[in-house]
């Protein structure tokens, strides 16, 4: 089992927070400038989407920095809420659907704006999943941690489908549970009647998993290069 000294872990966390903060600031600046340029709130909803993407990252950061006894007590309930909000982070990738030529702003500007937000959503998702996988690995081992990461990304992809195509959101678990449960159960029991559901889930899930594995491998390659 890998052990990272607390001081080193803190420096890594602060560096990550600085980079993510700078990247999020860029997205906010791009959205704000667009409002001033066009006097329209076309992409203002992306601020809310970024906020939702920050929730699972905030939860995983809290769990990762909590003391051992506290973390053990809150891991399951916080982990369940984390899984509920986790799809909001990669969901921003699908906001590329909103990209189209619009009067008053260059097409390339809107492309950069949406890509910036999508990138932040993806990086927040991966950073949060890294935290959660590390917690699972400490308790159950490497194999179980990768099983957890794979299931989390596949469930997240299903959640992205529910959000983009069915227009559900995380709050519907409380505000509209019966309809949400019925639509999910219907797709589970009748998969061939909902090929689009499972096509999106599997394709997007594989894409997210390969991206996550790439990010992890790049991190290991960078650590190896630094120590050699």
UniProtKB/TrEMBL annotation:
For this protein, the record's Pfam families field holds:
DUF1361
Is Kinase found in the keyword set? no
Provide the alphabetized UniProt keywords.
Answer: Membrane, Transmembrane, Transmembrane helix
Starting at the broadest rank, the lineage of the source organism is: Bacteria, Pseudomonadati, Bacteroidota, Cytophagia, Cytophagales
Identification of the protein by name: DUF1361 domain-containing protein
Gene source species: Hymenobacter jejuensis
The regions listed as transmembrane in this protein's record are 16-37, 43-67, 74-93, 105-128, 140-162, 196-215
